[in-house]
Each structure stands twice: as C-alpha cells, then as structure tokens.
Amino acid sequence: MKINPNKVEFMISAVSDAQYPDTPLKEIALSGRSNVGKSSFINSVSGRKNIARISSKPGKTVTLNFYNMDEKFLFVDVPGYGYAKQSKKEREKWGKMIEAYLTDRKELSCVVQLIDIRHKPSEDDILMYDYLKHFEIPVIVVCTKSDKISKNKMPQHLKVIREDLELEETDQLIPFSSVDKKNLPQVMSAMSEFI
Ligand SMILES: Nc1nc2c(ncn2[C@@H]2O[C@H](COP(=O)(O)OP(=O)(O)OP(=O)(O)O)[C@@H](O)[C@H]2O)c(=O)[nH]1
Ligand SMILES: [Mg+2]
C-alpha cells in the first residue's frame, strides 16, 4: 500500500455519529494514552509533517478526527486516555463517545493501539486492549518512540509489553519511531490486511 502525501486530507472533527463522514472506505482507529504519539504516527503514515497536529500540551485532542488517506482508508484519531488533568465529567464524556464509536461503527476494521516502548503498559492500556478483544476488534500494537531506547534493549521491552497485555497470537506487535520511521513498511503491510 502506498499513500500519496498530497492526497491525504483532514475531513472532520466529530463528537457524535451524525458527524461521522459517509464514505465506502474502511476505518482504522488510533488509540493510546495521551502523548504516546498518535498524531505523529498519522503524519508518518501520511508522509506529511503537519497534517495531524502534534500537541505540545497533552490531552489536546478531544474529538474524533477523521483523515482520508488517499482514498484507501480513513484514519480516526481518538483522543488519548489517561490524561490526569481531565475532570471526571470530561472523562465520562470521553468514555461515552469512544464506546459509541468502537461498538457501533460498521466501517471500523481495526484499531492500532499505540504503546510507548519505554514503559510497561499502563492499566488504561490493558483495559483498552481487553475492551477491544471483548468486542472482537482486530488490534495492531505499535510500540512508539523506539528511537528512545537502545537496540539491544528492544527485545526485552517488546516481551514485557506482549506479556502484560496478554497479546493474542494473531495480534501483531511492531516497534516504530516517528523520528526515523523505523518499520514503517511493516506497519503499512499490517494495516493493509484490514482495508
Ligand atoms: N522521540 C520520539 N518522539 C516522538 C515520537 N512520536 C511522538 N513523539 C513526540 O511525543 C510528543 C507527543 O506526540 P503526539 O503525536 O502529539 O502524541 P498524541 O498521542 O497525538 O497526543 P494527544 O493528541 O495529546 O493524545 C511530541 O512531542 C512528539 O514529537 C517518536 O517516535 N519518537
Ligand atoms: Mg494527538
């Protein structure tokens, strides 16, 4: 799968299903804690520097942001979870919006769950993974910021993430970096199975 950077378009920031775009394309949603690198991941796959806004402050993205990826599929940037400064009310609103999207959206074909390769999965990461499995949504786990650890530490970090999430055999785990684009072809080929 090849994406033409000039044909990547931001479509809409949506908060409810009435606003979701109406296209025949399948959707791949990005989930992960705030600051894990979701927007940077979209930019990397797009081959664009700034199509998805990279936040200087975490927790900035509070809507479902839809991107048309060269008419091949849509990316849906889901607001990051686990942002401590969110109020309880904001968190509840977040939960309802995400749940409605993940459980009702026919076009959703897979979720790319991003986990920071440097850290053990958080409780929220594990909850999210279990939730996706419960609803039988295929998951690709992308371990971000791989440029931040040394090569020889990589296998051990991947092992911990795989074990803590109790990853299913069929779910892929791919180390990735938005800085050096490590494993971008692997990520593309994993996603192309779902579009
Ligand atoms: N070194 C390194 N930094 C990264 C990588 N990916 C993202 N970052 C940095 O991490 C910070 C957060 O990145 P974003 O892409 O905005 O993260 P996000 O998950 O979209 O964050 P929210 O929208 O707040 O949920 C930024 O400072 C990025 O430059 C990576 O692969 N390597
Ligand atoms: Mg973001």
TrEMBL record:
Belongs to the TRAFAC class TrmE-Era-EngA-EngB-Septin-like GTPase superfamily. EngB GTPase family. Pfam families: MMR_HSR1 (PF01926). The lineage of its organism: Bacteria, Bacillati, Bacillota, Bacilli, Bacillales. This is Probable GTP-binding protein EngB. Its cofactor is Mg(2+). InterPro entries: G_ENGB_dom, GTP-bd, GTP-bd_ribosome_bio_YsxC, P-loop_NTPase. Residues 24-195 form the EngB-type G domain. Transmembrane segments: none annotated. Necessary for normal cell division and for the maintenance of normal septation. Keywords: Cell cycle, Cell division, GTP-binding, Magnesium, Metal-binding, Nucleotide-binding, Septation. Gene3D superfamilies: P-loop containing nucleotide triphosphate hydrolases.
